[in-house]
Amino acid sequence: MTASPESATPAAAAAPVRRRGVLAAYFALTKPRVIELLLVTTIPAMFLAERGIPSPWLVLVTLVGGAMSAGSANALNCVADSDIDAVMHRTKKRPLVNYEVPKRHALTFGLVLGALSFLVLWLGANLLAAVLATSAILFYVLIYTLVLKRRTAQNIVWGGAAGCMPVVVGWAAVTGTVEWPALVMFGVVFLWTPPHFWSLAMKYRDDYARAGVPMLPVVATARQVSARILAYSWATVGCTLLLVPATSWIYIGFAVLAGAAFLVVAQRLHGAVRNGAGYNPMTLFHLSNSYLALIFVAIAVDAAVGLPAVV
């Protein structure tokens, strides 16, 4: 288990920080683990839009442009949040906190990366995909990071919309439009984000409280948080089933089984909190990653196989 900041010994707190190389530090600014999750949703959206296997070149261009877009948003987020990152145990190793990258250079890096992502998507896919990706950067930085995050407990609910954009970008890259299946996939990620992030925030509640960030676990009781996690988990599973008209039994089977497992763990968390028993919210956090990945892999497999839609 990871020790909390309060339990760290003075010797551990004074231990020197291992500094990365310059390239590694800039790469860390982009939060590559977050990008991985976003790209997991992009490719299946492209498969469903194509109703088969899309052009490998288009997939590559969309992934590169999407990764640059997400990296831009994450780097700019690091710049805006460097003050709170410095007091949170979970984020204290980020490059700006450890002075591995000057803040001005990180800002320039994020802006240039965003501009390049627009060009890559515009020239390699189409203008709509480029505009959607850029709007996600602007929403994440200007609306979520600078406005919502430090002002409301609903920050992650509305701010999470930026993380839903890769599915719409992927769909637009293939079709040049945004149709209802893309909006359903957007809804899946949108509804999935609160239980995913609130379970993490339950673990790091003290971190957010110390930083003055009103994440829901900071301003609400554990029982209220687990109840909302359960409600959003049900909504997420329900939203996945709205794709039934565009998919076959392959996707439906995966969605039902994976959804059941997701709901069982969410219910166990709420039950443990309600009964005053010991609980580990990170179990749901880790499962939520696997759940979202499985749902979107099922979408890709279903589209690639090409069985007739159920409806």
Walk me through the structure:
The chain has 311 residues and is mainly alpha-helical. 74% of the residues lie in helices and 0% in strands. The protein has helices at 10-13, 22-29, 32-50, 56-80, 82-85, 103-124, 127-148, 155-159, 161-175, 180-203, 205-211, 216-219, 222-240, 249-274, 281-305. α4 (56-80) runs antiparallel to α6, α4 packs parallel to α7 (127-148) and α7 packs antiparallel against α9. The radius of gyration is 20 Å and the shape is flat. The model is unreliable at 1-16 (pLDDT under 50).
Count of alpha/pi helices:
15
Radius of gyration: 20 Å
Shape: flat
Q: Strand share of the residues?
A: under 5%
What is the terminal separation in angstroms?
47 Å
Task: Tell me the number of strands.
Answer: 0
Give start-end ranges of low-pLDDT stretches: 1-16
Helix content: over 70%
* Biggest pleated sheet: none
* SSE sequence, one letter per element: HHHHHHHHHHHHHHH
Entry keywords:
single chain; about 300 residues; mainly alpha; 15 helices; flat; disordered N terminus
Tell me briefly what this model is.
The protein is mainly α. It has 15 helices and no strands.
